[in-house]
Design brief:
The N and C termini lie far apart (about 120 Å). The protein has about 575 residues and is mainly α. Helix 2 runs parallel beside helix 4, helix 6 runs antiparallel to helix 7 and helix 15 runs antiparallel to helix 16. The protein has four domains: about 250 residues, Serine Threonine Protein Phosphatase 5, Tetratricopeptide repeat, CATH 1.25.40.10; about 50 residues, no CATH class; about 110 residues; about 120 residues, Orthogonal Bundle (Arc Repressor Mutant, subunit A), CATH 1.10.10.60. The protein is elongated and about 120 Å long. About 85% of the residues lie in helices and about 0% in strands. The longest helix is centred in the C-terminal third of the chain and has 108 residues. It has 24 helices and no strands.
């Protein structure tokens, strides 16, 4: 206790000194801003001052208002100097602060406005950076569909303007969303594509994150050897990043150590896992806890007391999302320590405690239910008899109604079919009568050829005669592939003259005339070729499909081919 008190006495002055140093930097930068007239120096001072407040605002929301007021002043100064880069970056930083302080609705509201502003200036790095807090705001609200659509839109636009940084950033955001949905195959593909795009681009922090996330994705898929290889490659990226910035990238190295810890622990290489647990303790000053991993490591060595202590600490710090996982880890330690009987007994004890807790309440409620049951039983029996009578009566009425409805439906069906049958018979007889009259008319005109008046002039009649002869020759009219242009060429005429000639002489278009020949033959085959089905007749007469045959036959004779054949058989 005494040592702890002395340690606190030593730490408090250090904390106060750090606070004083930060405040001194703020005061110094404010003084430069207030006293200098040099716009560039002012902008640089604003950048440094807002950077200090930026990280404070993420921890303390009260500092956010001060930070945003500084952003507004910096924006006005940057506008005077036409410094578009500074104006774009501060808007990205604003959204990052709002996202970091869980003001997701504000991010979603402001993002499109800022995006349009930056797009006009064509500051593409800032433009695509701005998408990330916007996507994260949807994701943090559980709106993963909207987040994924936004990331896809981002990728499509970056592809349109051929910006690899934008495409890589979009893929990085897509991968995070896929990971939350446990779609690891798609997540891995996005990370690998992003790494390919970002290899030769200055955005080394994003490239390092892609390598780190890819290795974590591989760990989640139990591909530990591959994960370790990717983590090894990450070291080169981190070195390049540190050389470019001149700053040790502690977070990047921490993430890399966490990958090693997870890969070695889950693959059962506990000594190596413990090594990286210690590395993480060292680099994070104990802020990153490895209780779950250390619990498993101790259990693997038979040090169950220490393992259970670590498991209890892990349960203590676990949030609601990971509480069940932490309890499960402790159960695994118990299983290794005592065997299945001990684990089963743990479950039995937990269930027994719940049973004892509710046993008295249950018995009391059961007595009340029994008493009420006896009363309700007598009432229910009376109601049952009444309901049974009512139900039987309803069944009878329902059955009677069903029989009446069925009889009416059957009667309508019989009446309809008889009506259709009468109509079809009348149509069939009408068709046959027309055929007879046409035959008689042909005979009369053949006998009295001198009195015969044929429409059209002499040349038109000659052309129609050659047209008819060509169609009848080898049944050309029944060929599906018959081509009107080839027919016109064969007759040495043109489309307009042929159309007028056929129209004047036959009162039909050339196509209608061809159809009439096909339909006439089909009608005769329906009567005489009973061994052929309707589809075969349709094909034999040159119709391209049965539906076309059906439509044209019905339009000419007001009856379907099937009905016509049926009438043929019944007559």
């Amino acid at each position: 206790m005494k040592n702890t008190f002395l340690l606190l006495l030593l730490l408090i002055p250090c904390y106060l000194i750090a606070q004083d140093n930060t405040q001194a930097q703020k005061d110094s930068l404010r003084a430069v801003i207030n006293q200098t007239t040099d716009g560039k120096e002012k902008i640089d001072s604003y950048k440094r001052l807002t950077n200090i407040y930026y990280f404070e605002a993420l921890r303390d929301e009260l500092k956010k208002d001060t930070l945003f007021a500084l952003y507004d002043k910096m924006d006005a100064e940057a506008e005077k100097l036409n410094n578009d880069g500074a104006r774009a970056v501060l808007r990205v930083n604003k959204l990052n602060v709002l996202n970091g302080t869980q003001k997701y609705d504000e991010v979603i509201k402001l993002a499109p406005v800022y995006l349009a502003f930056i797009e006009k200036m064509e500051m593409w790095n800032a433009y695509f950076q701005l998408y990330t807090p916007w996507i994260n705001s949807y994701r943090n609200q559980g709106k993963e569909k909207e987040a994924l659509e936004l990331a896809q839109n981002m990728y499509d636009y970056a592809k349109k303007i051929n910006n690899d940084t934008g495409k890589g950033t979009a893929l990085f955001n897509m991968a995070i969303i896929y990971g939350n949905q446990y779609r690891f195959t798609e997540q891995e593909q996005c990370y690998r594509e992003a790494i390919t795009l970002l290899q030769d681009i200055p955005a080394l922090n994003l490239l390092a994150s892609c390598y780190d996330k890819l290795s974590s994705c591989l760990v989640a898929q139990k591909r530990f050897d591959e994960a370790i290889l990717i983590a090894d490659e990450t070291e080169n990226i981190i070195n390049r990043y540190e050389e470019a910035t001149g700053v040790i990238q502690t977070n990047a190295r921490t993430n890399r150590f966490m990958v090693y810890r997870g890969a070695y622990y889950q693959s059962g290489q506990y000594d190596k896992a413990e090594y990286y647990c210690n590395k993480l303790d060292s680099i994070s000053n104990g802020k990153i806890k490895s209780y779950e991993e250390r619990s498993g490591i101790f259990a693997s060595r038979g040090q169950y007391k220490e393992a259970l202590e670590m498991a209890d600490k892990n349960i203590e710090i676990a949030g609601p999302k990971f509480k069940a996982q932490a309890i499960g880890a402790k159960m695994m330690v118990l299983l290794r320590k005592e065997g299945t009987e001990a684990l089963e007994q743990t479950f039995r004890d937990a269930v027994g405690a719940l049973i004892e807790k509710h046993k008295a309440e249950f018995n009391t409620q059961l007595d009340e239910i029994r008493t009420q049951y006896e009363v309700d039983k007598i009432t229910a029996e009376k109601e049952r008899i009444t309901i049974e009578k009512e139900r039987n009566r309803n069944y009878f009425l329902f059955s009677l109604g069903g029989c009446i409805l069925l009889s009416i439906t059957l009667g309508i069906w019989i009446y309809y079919n008889r009506t259709i049958l009468r109509k079809n018979k009348a149509l069939y007889r009408q068709i046959k009568e027309q055929d007879r009259l046409e035959e008689e008319l042909k005979q009369i005109t053949a006998d009295d050829d001198s009195n015969k008046v044929i429409p059209g002039d002499r040349q038109q009649r000659q052309l129609v005669a050659r047209f008819n002869e060509f169609l009848l020759n080898e049944r050309n009219y029944a060929k599906p592939e018959i081509n009107l242009d080839e027919l016109i060429s064969e007759l040495a005429t043109n489309r307009t003259y042929l159309f007028e000639a056929v129209k004047n002489v036959t009162k039909k278009t050339p196509l209608d005339y061809i159809h009439s020949l096909k339909l006439e033959e089909a009608k005769q085959m329906l009567e005489t070729r009973l061994d052929l089905n309707i589809e075969t007749i349709s094909e034999g007469c040159g119709f391209v499909s049965r539906s076309t045959f059906h439509r044209l036959f019905r339009a000419r004779y007001s009856i379907t081919p099937a009905e016509y054949r049926k009438m043929t058989l019944s007559e």
